[in-house]
Design a protein that fits this description.
The structure is a single chain. This protein is α/β, with parallel strands linked by helices. Among the domains are: about 80 residues, 2-Layer Sandwich (Dna Ligase, domain 1), CATH 3.30.1490.110; about 160 residues, 2-Layer Sandwich (Nucleotidyltransferase, domain 5), CATH 3.30.420. It is built from 11 helices and 19 strands. The strands form 5 sheets. It has a 6-stranded mixed β-sheet with strand order 11-6-1-2-3-19, sandwiched between helices. Helix 8 runs parallel beside helix 9. The longest helix is centred in the C-terminal third of the chain and has 26 residues. It is globular and about 85 Å long. The chain starts with 8 loop residues before the first strand and ends with a helix. The relative contact order is 0.16.
Length: about 425
Amino acid sequence: MAAGRNGPLAALDIGTTKICCFVAKEDAGGLRVKGIGHQVANGMRAGAITNMEMAEESIRSAVDAAERMAGETIREVFLSVSAGQPASQTVDVTVSLAGQEIGERDLQRTLKEAKTSYKPENRTVIHALPVGYTVDGNKGIRDPRGMYGDNLGISMHMVSVLNSHYKNLCSCVERCHLGIAQVVAAPYASGLATLVEDEMDLGVTVIDLGGGSTSFAVFYDGEMVYNEVIPVGGAHVSNDIARGLSTTLVNAERMKTLYGSALSSPADEKEIIDVPLIGETDHEVANHVPRSMLVGIIKPRIEEILELVRDRLASSGFAKVAGRRAVLVGGASQLAGVQELAGRILDKQVRIGKPIRVKSLADATGGPAFATAAGLLTFAMKENFDDPVGVTNMEKTPKNRLLRIGNWFRENF
């Protein structure tokens, strides 16, 4: 059953701490999620695969759960990528038209020339997004078809990742007998899921606070114009707690969720938390610490992450077009006080982003932690049904079907 109008659309978000699969079908012009599966991510570190077999098992479990809930069998997925040292580059190309009317062929020729002119070494281009056209030097044109001019120019935002990371990720998914419809940058998907049209037009920064990494993307004039990944995330906060309070990672995660905050308050000194010590089998050994100690560990790490985002944004040259608006997504954005702290450090108006373009998501799966998975479905709708010109270079892997047939023969004969 092919992805698209004749069958289900599937999104696979492979993160450092969780793997999530959404299966959806078109419903009254929109998408309705029919099946959801999420699993603890094993064999992953900072968004990259460290153990192929463990990662494959986690992917299979998440996909199987989503298929069972949806009552569908999925053949290909839209896949997110949040590691591989993604790089953003804007490429400008101008072609001569000799004063004729600009048609579809001229547009495709310009897009093709822009794509072929950018060939980064040891990297795979996953997005080629037109962020603006010019006709005889006139800027701000979104669709030049039907216009007349001597020269047609295009600015393309190219996003590329390391070949090794791209191949490892694709290989792991293909080992689960799944084809890859498209690989999508995680912050781009999160933005498509959570941003309203005005935010995309006026300028906004989407910050995805994940488990092993923090990625951010700048949207302006309706399109993503920059994105970057910082290899620090919510899991580093849990590690800091475990080390600082001499407890296990499981207890550190629990305390972060139940009592953690990125902002201190006067009541923190009075509130006492029970911290089980690592390696202690006798639970009668009491170890009580004030909540202020927990907050004192969490706050510096969250500040560091947000300051890194602020500094990288400033050095990128896109700080002005990013405007005064920021949207936080990802599991770590749900930590108490993060929104207020982000507002102070970034000097922006900050809100928590939730998926707004996908129907029938429950409260548990409709929050910021699942924005990327929902955004992959939004991207799939945009690709399959809107048919925009040159939105992506469609780095598909046509050999997937042959690989799956070969795998089936090897396993069965």
